[in-house]
User: Which sequence fits this backbone?
């Protein structure tokens, strides 16, 4: 089946975003591994947040090329699929690692930050879409 | 929402892929709209209506209009 020009644009933007996110992640993993003990932890966390924001920006061209239905499909899949996966992951990590283990704590931290990110985004969207009183 | 998209598209001799390219949406989106599996956003509905040069409600039937 022939690939349309639109699909090619989406695929190229998706591949570009994927490579960019991978590069940012690998680079940042090296920075964290080598900088641990030399760089203050607060600075590492702050710069990690910046790196994550840059990674999201790298995926933006891909997102903008999708149509409404494609975005809706991804958002719904992310909400239900990833939400379920995150819960399952946190519970499994707790069962395998045991309560209070670093493994379980790490998994729960990821879910907690994900939930915090979700509500932060909801708050921003709510503020942006809030109609002025008339 | 029930609609006349398939009828209008085939009337113009267009495939789903060709219409999708013209509307800058995916072929699957056109297929889902025609099969009443997906309700398009207002901008896409208006773009389609403008393409076929008909009012949006002649393309997408308003189920809330009395007597519909």
Assistant:
């Amino acid at each position: 089946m022939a690939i349309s020009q639109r699909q090619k644009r989406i695929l190229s933007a998706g591949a570009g975003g994927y490579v960019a996110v991978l590069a940012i992640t690998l680079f940042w993993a090296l920075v964290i591994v080598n900088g641990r003990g030399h760089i203050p932890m607060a600075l590492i966390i702050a710069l990690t947040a910046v790196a994550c924001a840059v990674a999201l920006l790298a995926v933006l061209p891909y997102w903008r090329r999708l149509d409404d239905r494609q975005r809706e499909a991804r958002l719904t899949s992310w909400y239900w699929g990833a939400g379920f996966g995150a819960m399952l992951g946190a519970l499994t990590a707790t069962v395998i690692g045991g309560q209070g283990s670093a493994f379980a704590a790490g998994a729960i931290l990821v879910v907690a930050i994900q939930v915090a990110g979700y509500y932060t985004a909801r708050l921003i969207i709510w503020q942006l879409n809030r109609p002025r009183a008339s | 929402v029930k609609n006349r998209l398939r009828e209008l598209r085939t009337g113009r001799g267009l495939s789903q892929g060709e219409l999708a390219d013209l509307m800058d949406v995916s072929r699957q989106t056109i297929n889902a709209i025609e099969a009443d599996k997906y309700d398009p956003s207002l901008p896409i509905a208006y773009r389609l209506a403008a393409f076929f040069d008909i009012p949006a409600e002649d393309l997408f039937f308003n189920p809330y209009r009395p007597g519909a």
